[in-house]
Amino acid sequence: MSGEAEFRRIAADIRRRIGAGEWAAGQVLPSRASMSRGYHVHEQTVRLAYDLLRRSGVLDGEKGRHVTVAHPPAMRTLTDMDADWPYSSETTDTRSQAATEELAGRLNVPVGVSLHHEAIECLEPGGRSAILISSWWRGRRRPHASATAELGAISLTEVQAHALGLLVDSLAYRVVRTRLDAHGAPVETADLILPLDRWTIRLR
Fold it and tell me: Based on the number of CB atoms within 10 Å of its own CB, is 125 exposed (0-12), middle (13-18) or buried (19 or more)?
């Protein structure tokens, strides 16, 4: 069996053992050395299995340290696309960007014009990332009177997947939110990326 197939097989078996109740949420798993002896493989193979399970949200813990069984992510319901996030958040990028054709259409500005940009990672109370928000606007940031939203799905990029602790190409909700002034003109647009395993969307 190839090395890649071997660590994926081990990851699947660890997932099965967790599901069977051998290890409970929050419990520390055996060390890589101990698991490698149990599975009769190199320690590196177990490390790869642990890394895969960590990225997919089954395990918690830093690389090179003890890993624990992750608590299931909280399922939240998003009802107001324009509401402020009630918990902590981190601004991860504020570099300006040139308007792509899509952004130009959303903001009614020329293609290539310089836009202000802000990327924010919204965190759950336990510290896990819940939403990634990228916003764009031209000139001074102005207040808005209303907002529109379009809901779709995307495959996560490497950067998005890393931030959310998921696998690349995992599916996520994508909410395109555009804020409008009192005359209905767009003043800001944003992409909200929400993991499917942590959210339901309620339209009203």
Answer: exposed
Contact (Cβ atoms closer than 8 angstroms) between residue 81 and residue 147: yes
Within a 10 A sphere around the Cβ of 184, how many other Cβ atoms?
9
CA atoms of 180 and 32, how far apart (whole Å): 53
Q: Which CATH architecture has domain 76-201?
A: 3-Layer(aba) Sandwich (3.40)
Give 55's contacts (C-beta < 8 A, 6+ positions apart).
161, 165, 166, 167
Rounded Cα gap, residues 37 and 177, in angstroms? 51
Distances (CA, A) of 45 to 17, 27, 151: 18, 21, 40
Average pLDDT, the chain: 89
Q: Where are the domains of the chain?
A: 3-69, 76-201
Q: What is the mean pLDDT of residues 10-14?
A: 93
CATH of domain 3-69: 1.10.10.10
- Kindly report the pTM of this predicted structure: 0.68
Tell me the sheet residues that pair with 149.
Answer: 177
**Helix, strand, coil shares of the chain as percentages rounded to 5?**
25, 35, 40
